[in-house]
UniProtKB/TrEMBL annotation:
One of its GO terms (biological process) is DNA repair. The keyword DNA damage applies. Belongs to the RecR family. SMART domains: TOPRIM. NCBIfam families: recR (TIGR00615). SUPFAM superfamilies: Recombination protein RecR (SSF111304). It comes from Lentzea aerocolonigenes. May play a role in DNA repair. It seems to be involved in an RecBC-independent recombinational process of DNA repair. It may act with RecF and RecO. This is Recombination protein RecR. The gene is recR. A zinc finger (C4-type) spans 56-71. Residues 79-179 form the Toprim domain.
Length: 202
């Protein structure tokens, strides 16, 4: 335990996701040794994040304007929507350069134990989007790309139930299975089972 502001800083840093007590202490002492100009830049960046970042009115992704650059892009396929949990998931899919449609960010996953139900997520907005044509184009496929964990699976199951009544709508789920370069002997049963059930012809 350190005294005063140093311990306060360590405590606050330790509350960040993925930052343990040792990392928080290391970052705090790094900041103590940092030049004042660098600290000011960090403070300014944090302030701008809270004041200047908004969420896209269409998809819920982080944006500098009311509509994000992906939703403004006229080359995007309006009939395809990929549903993800968080804005960081949009970037993960964009890096593949395989998806040419638009996104819908839920803002999390269903987690009743933590008090996150359907009303806390952007599910109603998704249903409204599917029921409304954009520039005369109806959404024909929804790709559910939630995380392959308990909460993500519960969210995917709930969405499938909500979307099955839309006529002509195809609802798909990202395939899950073995990572490239992995060994079969180290795969857990669930991953290996998914890989088998999701096998495709060669």
């Amino acid at each position: 335990m350190y005294e005063g502001p140093v311990q306060d800083l360590i405590d606050e840093l330790g509350r960040l996701p993925g930052v343990g007590p040792k990392s928080a202490q290391r970052i705090a002492f790094h900041l103590l040794a940092t030049e004042p100009a660098d600290i000011e830049r960090l403070q300014s960046a944090l302030q701008k994040v809270k004041e200047g970042v908004v969420f896209c009115d269409v998809c819920g992704n982080v944006s500098a304007e009311t509509t994000c650059r992906i939703c403004r892009d006229p080359k995007r396929d309006l009939s395809l929507v990929c549903v993800v949990e968080e804005p960081k998931d949009v970037q993960a899919i964009e890096r593949t350069r395989e998806f040419k449609g638009r996104y819908h960010v839920l803002g999390g996953a269903l987690d009743p134990l933590s008090g996150v139900g359907p009303d806390q997520l952007r599910i109603r907005q998704l249903l409204n989007r599917i029921g409304t044509a954009t520039d005369g184009v109806d959404i024909s496929e929804v790709i559910i790309a939630t995380d392959p964990n308990t909460e993500g699976e519960a969210t995917a199951t709930y969405l499938v139930r909500m979307l099955r009544d839309f006529p002509g709508l195809s609802v798909t789920r990202l395939a899950s299975g073995l990572p490239m370069g992995g060994d079969l002997e180290f795969a857990d049963e669930l991953t290996l089972g998914r890989a088998l059930s999701g096998r495709r012809s060669m």
